[in-house]
Design goal:
Layout (H helix, E strand, L loop, with lengths): L9 E12 L6 E9 L2 E8 L12 E12 L2 E6 L4 E4 L10 E11 L4 E5 L11 E2 L3 E2 L3 E11 L4 E6 L1 H8 L3 H11 L3 H11 L3 E9 L2 E8 L1
Parallel strand pairs: 3-5, 12-14
Antiparallel strand pairs: 1-2, 1-4, 2-3, 4-5, 4-6, 7-11, 7-13, 8-11, 9-10, 11-12, 13-14
């Protein structure tokens, strides 16, 4: 993965699926991170390619994929000519960590207690998925924030585990609070109270414009 540095390269890559994200477009089948011992990289699998779905924490040989670049960041794209072959051995995924110091200056929309589509993991809006319509959503929590070190800003994403740790409540507790108050913004308010305007050191993996937070200290 560390050797992927030129857009337009056609590649065969053995890698582990580190994380899957919710697609932001119907044209995308799956999106997330794959990696080997040298690092991680974003991938996009186009819906029109009709490739089999891959699973988190499993290792594959990705054949005939192509490197791409956007805003100086490399990624790989799966297309109609690509092939996905499950491996019978596990690839160890590593990555370069980034540390950022600054003040949390914004908590973005979509933070707090959310429900996701069980099929594509998109965040539901008014109980409906953009792709699959009205579904019984799965419970989740996340934080999308912006940190400022006085020279530049960095967008942050906290997964459920990190959100629970930062806010000090479990997903089940958050669900109970929302059920009692009938107000999803209650959890968002708790997040703002803990984070907004305070200074932190955050460490995580930088992907696209986001830092996926793994550690955080005040």
């Amino acid at each position: 993965v560390a050797g992927i540095a030129e857009p337009g390269q056609w590649l065969d890559v053995e890698a582990k699926v580190v994380e899957l994200w919710a697609p932001t477009s119907d044209s995308i089948s799956q999106v997330g991170l794959i990696g080997d011992e040298t690092g991680v990289i974003k991938f996009v699998s186009w819906a029109k390619a009709k490739l089999p779905a891959i699973e988190e924490s499993k290792s594959y040989l990705f054949k005939n994929v192509v490197a791409d670049e956007f805003n100086g960041r490399m990624s790989i794209k799966f297309n109609k000519t690509s092939e996905i072959v499950p491996l019978d051995h596990e690839i160890q995924a590593g990555s370069v960590e980034v540390t950022f110091h600054g003040a949390i200056v914004a908590i973005q929309a979509g933070s707090g207690y959310i429900k996701r589509c069980p099929e594509c993991k998109r965040v539901l809006k008014k109980g409906a998925c953009e792709k699959h319509g009205r579904v019984n959503g799965t419970d989740d929590m996340r934080i999308k924030a912006v940190i400022d070190d006085g020279h530049r800003t960095q967008e942050l994403i906290f997964n459920r585990e990190m959100t629970e740790k930062v806010v000090g409540i479990t997903l089940d507790h958050a669900k109970a609070i929302v059920a009692e108050t009938l107000d999803y913004s209650t959890i968002t308010g708790m997040i703002e109270t803990v984070l907004l305007g305070r200074y932190f050191t955050v460490t995580g993996n930088e992907v696209d414009r986001y830092l996926l937070v793994k550690e955080m200290t005040q």
